[in-house]
Amino acid sequence: PAAPLAPATTSEPKPMPAQSAEGEAGERDVTQAEEVMGLIREGFKLEDAGSSTLHKNLSGALERLSADLYADAHHHLFEILQNFADNNYAPGQQRRVRFILTGSELVALNNELGFSEENVRALCGVNASTKPQEAASKEKIGCKGIGFKAVFAVSDTPTIHSHPWHFHFNKKLQVSGVNLPGLGFIYPTALPAETQEYDWQTELRLPFSPDLTEKNRELLFQDMRALDREVMLFLPLDEIALEDRATGSAGARTMRKRVLQAVPSGEGTRVEVIRVEDERGQSDFLFVRQDVPFEPKDPSSRKVVVSVGVPLPPAHVESTSDWFRQPRVAHLTYCSLPLRHFGFRLPVNGNFDVTASRDDVHRKSPWNLRIARVIPQVLLEAWSAAKRAGLLPEPQTGTARDALTLTAPVPATPPVRCLPYAFMLRFLPQRGDLGSGPFQGVEDEAWRKFRDAACVLTWEGRWEQPRRCLLAPAGMPRVLSPELLGEVAGLHYVHPEMMGDVAGLGDLGVKKDAAAFQELLGALRAMSRPNNLHHALLKDPQWLGALLCFIYEMLFESQLPREACDRGLEQVRGLQILPVQAGEEIELMSATDKLFQPGGTDSLPAGVSNVHMISPTLLAATDDPRLKSLLVHMGITELSRGAYVANVLLPCCQEIAAGTQEADPAVLCGFVRFLAALSPASEEETCRQWAIRQDAAPVPFQTLIAEHMLWPCRDRVVGLMEAAVLFPPGLHAGVGGDEVVRDAHKELADGAWVEVLTRHHRPLPDCLAILVDDLVPDDPKEGLALMQFLHKIGISSVCRVVQTEMAVDAAALGTLEPWATLEHEWPQGISGTVVIQDYSSPSMLVWAKLIPHLQGEERLAATRALAAGFALDLDGCLDSKLKLSNGAVHRIPSSIQAELWSRAWATGSNGGSMPPRLMWFNTTKVVKRPQGGGSVEVPGVACVTGWEHRVVHPDYESRRAIRTLLEASGVKPLGCTDVLTVLRKWAADRRADLCEAQMSLVYLFLHASRQDPDGGCVHRAFAVDKEPLIYVDESGKSTKSDRLASHIKPIHIGLNPMLGKWVSVDDCVVRNYRRKCRPVLAQYGVAELESHYGILLKDPFEAFGASLNAELRHVLRAVANGGELEAGEEHFVAYAAERFRELAEDSRLDEEELRDLLSRLPCLPTDGGECVVWPRDTDQRHDEDDADDAGAGSEAGS
What is the pTM of this model? Predict the structure, then answer.
């Protein structure tokens, strides 16, 4: 509670003084005062008619000026205080002001020495102040000339009593019936001394104007009651009493200002601890004032005055933390009296160059700019003054106390509480607080001054610059003592009692959070140097264990940003602070040196020596689980198999790939065997450890090994991302499975393919590599396990498959290789961008390109290898997917299938190479001999003379794996369609050097193929389309003999060559029992096939549509053939007549057939020397013959 106030000075009306010598002197003074006022009134010459216009103009100007400047109905309160503060007082006298508010007037009382004539004349003028700008210590606040006019806002007749002066002004002044209200502001009217009601030296009464609204009057009452104790801070007044008689005595209040302590300070600086108290309580302030020359280089120049009042913590705030948590409000800025809020967080006062309305400062005034530059200096002085005043507690090393529970050494009751060490952080303006007005930039300058000052209390109790201080978490001093921090880093911990405003300390430049952690790392880095005085401390397991637990706390339990934690963890990994047992000695290493925690040890691959164990004493020094957790985050795990792979084996491969470590094939072989022996649990652990090491999401084990493992191959060390790594031949030995798989492994086990590959590729292609033979274990079971592991990783037998996905413009599909070479037909109507999910095999292409350049056994070995690779690696990879933009999916040949189909690598019967899609497998047909003579085997290859290169070589066809590969590559069995194609080619080329044996095989093959799925093409070609595909001899030889059968087995192409022609079934018969007809028909091209091919081909030719004996159509065909050759010759005409006579004598003649044939065949000789068809009568024609007649007529040209 506030101390009891002294009784207020009476405000009762004073009694009339008794007659005495002193009274007589007073009366003389009053008389003289009245005379002076008479002279003032005469000076206005109101009775002079000639100056009436001037009076009116001046009256209007004053009235307008007063209305514009003081539109606020209660601005006059501060003007009255201003005038009273500027008054003269007796030395040592308490400066007191009293306001009495009634329902009809406001009375202001002051105990000054009294008005002088100069004061009165100033009130009766404008800007005629008697208050010159004096020395800084005596500088006046305002001007009674204009400022006093504010009272007219509430009163029409303000009255002044200040012995011997008694007068009033009349706002509604009238002279000779003319209203001159403005002149009433400065035109005094004398009053009797007896009208003074209060026993005070100066009495100002303001009867309320009838025009004052009830609302403005209520605002006046509220302002009177709301005057803050802070107002007294910068006024040269000791007491302001407020008495509210309008609402009752409950509104009475007296504010008193006391200087509790004057603090010794330098020249131009005044520091005081001030208390302002009233019935409501008290407010304590640290008052700091500095007087600075306007011209820094001229000490005698006028002084700018800046003062601040630091509000000390109020009584209701119990702790420092509560005080700092309270909202930081903006305080008024003063020019002795309040101006307005500019954004300062404590009261700031200055002798500003203010506007006439006293509610703002001139923004561009050099005087005000000089004051703005001084404010940061005064703020810094306030902090220093608090130390000198004893308001800051006496520092104690490392002890955290609450300053608000401590009493400052200031004589006062109740006592003044201490300030927290960081108190100024509550009051410094933040950037942007002061806006873009006259104080712009003051914030930055204030903070700069504090950053350069030794204003932060350290752990040791010393004041240091912020940049040399470290705001560390509570646990850090336990592991890095203040002394140690100072010695190794040159820094100091912030005192615990300075931590009330952590954010503000950071703004000052104190290192905290991430910066504090970096300083810790810097100290540890310095300690890790062997020549450091504190190097041995790192080998103390108790101390180091506590340190590492604290580092874990900083990285994973604090508020550090994720990026800072990641960066910090990587920096910790690089510190050489981890103890490693090296014999009997302890060496310090970093986590990047492949360290492991003891425990979980497993057998390691031979040749690896760079594995180091953390000293067990470190882990035994503490049971805090954070220690092991930090080691794991640093990549230091127990030495399990998975940990070894992730932290030693794969990083070793990375170093080899980067060229920082030499590759040792023996070590890499050990790595491979070690990986192959991992259990599924160890594989999962490997993935987890690698993810922690890389700070990335886990990836599958196969992907991890495929991307980072290096493989010892015959000619180099290589990764799976660089080349297709293949099994060594020995790994295939003894591998079982189904028949196809077993045969494939057997083909590869002999190693002939490796010899071929290395003989013709030195070095091997970049896309191909073969593992070293040293990798093959002696135990077949181990070999099988190793093969399964390698296959799982992506290592292949012969052909490694690569799966790709590519986006292609649909318009470019036709030119896309290898499908363009294959002439693949793409789906119709597609557009836009399509996606191809494809399979390819660069290693398969190596074989496909190599095989055509090989001969004999080498070619066979290479083909066997490719076939085995197909069975083991490529099967199931022949189809790819084409995804359209509409979501539809089409199957297309994969790149593997397209390359196999289109590249010329398959071996033909002649030893040459062809694309498989153009080749055939040899097909053998079994034909029965007539009359029970057994059967004959007809090989298809014998039926395609000149095309043998397109038939697969028998040595390749007989091998199951190669045949399977060829079938998948587009090779088909030789069928009747293929033989017909060759036969048509012979006929088209009019080939005449064939032999009957060869042709017999062709016809037998075709006859035997009639029951095949495509056998219908044989009947269609011979019987329906009547193609000239039958070869007959024209050499005159008769080869009818059973030796034809000997020509079938074996077949010797070129045996018994003939010169012949190609005919259809209409131009031949199988046999002719009428022997005399044989030469007659043969004369003009109707052949007897039996005479050429024997009885063996009777059934085939009949099946093809040939007649067994000569028929009417054959006779007329012979005549028509003769007509084509020699129609006008006499002997031909005789020949034709003889044939018609024979027909006429034949009782079996079918006349209708004759008419039909004659209408189609030109066999009737004419006198014109040509042969024509017979034009049948129209009425004898049958409707179904119309088309035939038209064709025959066209053929005959008639």
Answer: 0.56
